[in-house]
Amino acid sequence: MCRLTVTKKSAVSFLAALSLLICSLFLFSSCSSAKTITLTSFALDTVCQITVYKEKDRPAAQKALELLKTYESVFSRTREDAELYKLNHSEGKAFTASDELYALIGDALSFSEISGGAFDITLGAVSDLYHFSESDTVLPEVSDLKEALLHTGYRHVHLLDNHEILIDDPACQIDLGAIAKGYIADRLKESLVTDGVESALISLGGNLLAIGKKPDQKPFLLGIRYPEKESQEVIKTLEITDASLVTSGTYERSFE
After folding, report:
1. CB atoms within 10 A of CB 116
2. How many CA atoms lie within 13 A of 254 on its CB side?
3. Which residues lie below 8 Å from residue 35, measured CB to CB, with a gap of 6+?
4. What is the phi/psi pair of residue 255, to 5°?
5. Tell me: the pLDDT tens digits for 50-101?
6. C-alpha–C-alpha distance, residues 1 and 178, integer Å
7. pLDDT on residue 145
8. Residue 121: alpha-carbon gap to chain centroid
9. Is 60 in contact with 36 (CB distance < 8 Å)?
10. Average pLDDT over residues 11-40
């Protein structure tokens, strides 16, 4: 019996060409023996957590976690009330964007230029054909894929004056999945540091960001899990201080 496994990453593999990824890996953190305070929320289509080590930092962590909902209302392309969704359905008309959306799309377009188009945020119409977020996952027809690809290309996206964005092809769809989590993690870090947090760990699915060191002044010890859904085997441990570590696993979203 022949079995075909389709992954979201295989469908849009070149979208993440510039991302700092470790392929097919899942990341978890190994915390110190110090008291930890971990707040959890489901956002950005994944489980998100912020861990701090002092009770006085709890309000700052809660505030940062609530920012996730704000950013989701900006960068989601599936929520009809989200700003990106409205941009994607602007039917070829100029759309006035928030500071956050305008800046992030500007950064993405810069990476597209640098990479000669290898990094491209306009694959929304292609990834939609696989229905990864729904129960009726399907293998798209080749003709449908060819048609969707005709409506991709970062040069369809134009940044105008006064924070206006124009997508000149109404069928072109922006997907910020390759860049938004990293941007959001940086913004959450800014919020925590501004509120006086000196030691924390931000987890947005496969995106982890460490603020400073652990309370015992040792680096955060992060374990990378063997890339299978049920595995708990750690194949590599890394120490990071005031840095980010990002992983991507093709097995996390797939269908047969």
Report:
1. 8
2. 16
3. 53
4. -150, 155
5. 999 999 999 999 999 999 999 999 999 999 999 999 999 999 999 999 999 9
6. 35
7. 96
8. 12
9. no
10. 50
CA 15/CA 36 separation, integer angstroms: 36
pLDDT band at 46 (very low <50, low <70, confident <90, very high): confident
CB 82 within 8 A of CB 97: no
Neighbouring C-alpha atoms within 13 Å toward the C-beta of 121 = 28
Predicted confidence at residue 6, as pLDDT, reads: 46
Q: What is the number of other CB atoms lying within 10 angstroms of the CB of residue 122?
A: 25
Q: What's the pLDDT score for residue 14?
A: 32
Give the pairing type, strands 95-96 and 46-52.
Answer: unpaired
Three-state SS for the chain is CCCCCEEHHHHCHHHHCCCCCCECCEEEEECCCCCCEEEEEEECCEEEEEEECCHHHHHHHHHHHHHHHHHHHHHCCCCCCCHHHHHHCCCCCCEECCHHHHHHHHHHHHHHHHCCCCCCCCCHHHHHCCCCCCCCCCCCCHHHHHHHHCCCCHHHEEECCCCEEEECCCCCCCCCCCCHHHHHHHHHHHHHHHCCCCCEEEEECCEEEEECCCCCCCCEEEEEECCCCCCCCEEEEEEECCCEEECECCCCCEEC
Crossing angle, helix 180-194 and helix 58-75, to 10 degrees? 150
Instruction: Select the more confidently predicted residue: 2 or 47.
Output: 47
